[in-house]
Each structure stands twice: as structure tokens, then as C-alpha cells.
Amino acid sequence: MSRRRGERFHRAPGLRKGYSRKQVEAFVARVDLALQGAVPGVTATDIRRVGFELVRRGYDVEEVDAALDEMELHAVRLGTTTSRRGRLDPVSEAAFMRQELSAPYMQRFPRVGFVRRGYDIDDVDDFLDRVCVALDRAIGTDPKTEGRGLDVAEVRTVAFRPRRGGYAEDEVDETLDRVVEMMLLMQAAPPAPR
């Protein structure tokens, strides 16, 4: 990988494509200004959802993604100075989210019409069960819950099969964005005193 003077990231190695340098530089500059308070309007969700064209001689994808993850965590820390109740309380927020996600199977989100495709209901419900286990562990209601742990990367990259009449994609995506922010907030919060 090569890194030229004035560039923030290394370029993709060999013949592999990387993110458009111009797009990455513009977005990172905007995020930097927003995180310093100079310009409004960049949220953790904006950082998580950004996409760049893949081009030859572009920036290394893994390096840029890692930098974006750090920026997202920083944005979560800055953007969540208060909660719904006026103070930062990640455990209460996680408990509230856990309650929201505890709807019965096949009823957790609105569905699209039968002719349209949405997310496979079983895939989403199974994944949300894992999210609920992670939230239970985080809020301490059931630390010995069975099942595999869940990390932020899995929530960011989860993919669901398309199905006619499935869950509405926008609703599921919005909820997963909130889950990512909650997990980042839990990671960023200082440990509770014992």
C-alpha cells in the first residue's frame, strides 16, 4: 500500500479497487468540522450509512472503514450527552430498547404488501433475539443468558434475505441503527461503580 503526501489514507494495494479519494476526503473533512462544532448536521447514523464509489487507485477500504468506525464512536459520544430523561444513562436506554424489541414474533415491524419485497421475517426475528440477549447482558437482567454474544460489527453488516410480504426494510434498518448507537454508547460509557 502506498500513501502519498497530503493523503489521509493509504491507497488500495495492487489492482484492487478502493474508495474514491475525492469522496472520502470531502466526507472526512465535513465530519471533522462537524465533530469540532464548526458545522452542524453530521450524525453517527450519517457516518455509518455513508457510501463511496469503488475506483482504481482509491483509498484502502479497510483503513477507511476503521477510521469511519472511530468517527462514529466519537459522534455517538458527542451526540448523546443527554438521554430521554435529561441525563446520560445507557443502562436505562438499553432497557427501554429491550422492551421495544420484545414484541411477539412476526409482529415486531410493519410489513410491506405481498407484491413487494421486504426483509425475511424469520431472519430478522432470529437476529433480534440475539440483540435482545446482548441487551439483557448489558443491562444485567440475565447475565447468564444462553447464546452467542453480539458485537457492533455484526449489527452493522447483518444481511437479511428478501421475501415478499416481509418486514419493511426502512423500519428494520432504523432500529438496527439505534442498536448500533446503543452498543457504541455502552462501550463508551464509563463502567458503573460497584
Can you offer a commentary on this structure?
- This protein has 2 domains: 17-79, no CATH class; 90-188, no CATH class.
- Mean pLDDT is 82; it is low at 80-87.
- With 194 residues, it is mainly α.
- The strands form 2 sheets. A two-stranded antiparallel ribbon has the order 1-2.
- It has 7 helices and 4 strands.
Explain the layout of strands and helices.
Elements lengths: L16 E3 L1 H15 L8 H6 L4 E3 L4 H19 L10 H11 L16 E3 L1 H19 L12 H6 L4 E3 L4 H20 L6
Antiparallel strand pairs: 1-2, 3-4
Which characteristics define this entry?
194 residues; 4 strands; mainly alpha; two-stranded antiparallel sheet
Described by strand count, sense and barrel closure, the largest sheet is: 2 strands, antiparallel
Beta-strand percentage?
A: 5-15%
Order of helices and strands: EHHEHHEHHEH
Strand order of the largest sheet: 1-2
Tally the helices.
7
Task: Find the structural class using helix and strand composition.
Answer: mainly alpha
Helix content: 40-55%
Number of domains: 2
Backbone CA Rg: 19 Å
- Ends distance: 47 Å
Unreliably modeled segments: 80-87
- Mean pLDDT score: 82
Give the beta-strand count: 4
Q: Any idea what the shape is?
A: globular
Overview in brief:
The chain has 194 residues and is mainly alpha-helical. The protein has seven helices and four strands.
